[in-house]
Write a structure and sequence with these properties.
This protein folds into two domains: about 5-45, no CATH class; about 55-230, no CATH class. It is built from ten helices and no strands. The chain has helices at about 5-15, 35-45, 55-70, 75-105, 110-130, 130-145, 155-170, 195-205, 210-215, 215-240. Helix 4 (about 75-105) packs across helix 5. Bound molecules: zinc ion. Zinc ion (ZN) binds near residues 20, 25, 27, 35 and 38.
C-alpha cells in the first residue's frame, strides 16, 4: 500500500491544523496549503496572504512625483551621471538576459519559473524601455520608503513592483491568453516566487537602491503634488 501521500497530508495537518494560517481568519484551510482559498489567492496575486490592495491611484501619484523629479533635473550634470551609470547597467543586464535565454534555446536545461522571470525582464527591456521602467521602479521604491506599512513584507513589496512592471511591459504568458479571443488576461494572472525573485535580482542590479537615495527629493515633489491638489479642490469648493 502506498503511504507517501498519506504522510504528506498528515504533516501539513500537523503543521497547520484545520484552519487558515492568516491571522484573524477562521476559514477552513485548503487541502495541502497553509491558507484558505481567499488567502491563497492573495498570496499568488498580491505577494502575501495579508497584503492589502494598493490602488492604482496611489501608484500613479508616486509615478507623477518621479516624473516631476526627472523633468526638474534634465540639465543637472550629476543627474546625468546617475542616468549614465544606470544605462550601462541596463545594457549589460540586457546582454545577460539574452545570453541566458539563448543558452536555453540551445538546449541548456533551466527551471521554467526562472526562465519565465527572464522573459519578464526581456519584455521589460524591449517593450517598456529604460525611462518607463525607471519611473515605475522609483515610484514603488518611494511608496515603500514613504510608508513601509503599505507592504506587509519585503516579499510583497518586491511582488507588487515586479507585477506592475510585468503588466506594463505586457509580458504575457501563453497560458494567460484567452483561448477563444486571444486576449491576454495577464492583469489577473499570478506571479510565482521564482519568477519574481529572478526579475527582482536583475532589476536590483540595474537600479540598486536609487529610489531610496532619491527619497527626500521625491518627497518634496510629492508634497508639491499634494498641495496643488488641495489648492485645486479648495478652488472648486469656492466655485460651488
Ligand atoms: Zn484565510
Amino acid at each position: 500500500m502506498d503511504m507517501s501521500g498519506y504522510g504528506l497530508v498528515r504533516s501539513t495537518q500537523a503543521a497547520y491544523g484545520n484552519c487558515c494560517s492568516a491571522s484573524g481568519c477562521s476559514n477552513k484551510r485548503k487541502s495541502g496549503h497553509r491558507y484558505c482559498d481567499q488567502h491563497k489567492y492573495k498570496l499568488l496575486y498580491r505577494g502575501d496572504a495579508e497584503q492589502q490592495k494598493i490602488s492604482l491611484k496611489t501608484v500613479n501619484f508616486a509615478r507623477k512625483a518621479v516624473e516631476m523629479l526627472i523633468s526638474d533635473n534634465r540639465n543637472n550634470p550629476s543627474w546625468g551621471e546617475l542616468m549614465d551609470c544606470i544605462y550601462r547597467n541596463w545594457v549589460s543586464s540586457e546582454r545577460y538576459v539574452n545570453a541566458e535565454l539563448n543558452s536555453h534555446l540551445g538546449g541548456k536545461p533551466s527551471d521554467r519559473r526562472v526562465r519565465r522571470g527572464l522573459i519578464i525582464c526581456y519584455d521589460i527591456f524591449n517593450n517598456l524601455g529604460l525611462e518607463k521602467t525607471f519611473i515605475t521602479y522609483c515610484a514603488w521604491q518611494y511608496l515603500h520608503d514613504w510608508n513601509p506599512r503599505l507592504f506587509v513584507t519585503d516579499e510583497s513589496f518586491r511582488f507588487q513592483l515586479i507585477k506592475s512592471l510585468r503588466n506594463q511591459a505586457k509580458s504575457y504568458h501563453t497560458q494567460d491568453l484567452d483561448k477563444k479571443t486571444g486576449v491576454p488576461r495577464t492583469y489577473s494572472s499570478p506571479l510565482y516566487m521564482k519568477e519574481r525573485e529572478t526579475a527582482w535580482m536583475i532589476l536590483m542590479g540595474i537600479f540598486g537602491t536609487v529610489g531610496m537615495q532619491l527619497h527626500k527629493q521625491l518627497e518634496r515633489r510629492a508634497e508639491k503634488l499634494r498641495s496643488n491638489k488641495d489648492r485645486i479642490s479648495n478652488a472648486i469648493k469656492q466655485i460651488e
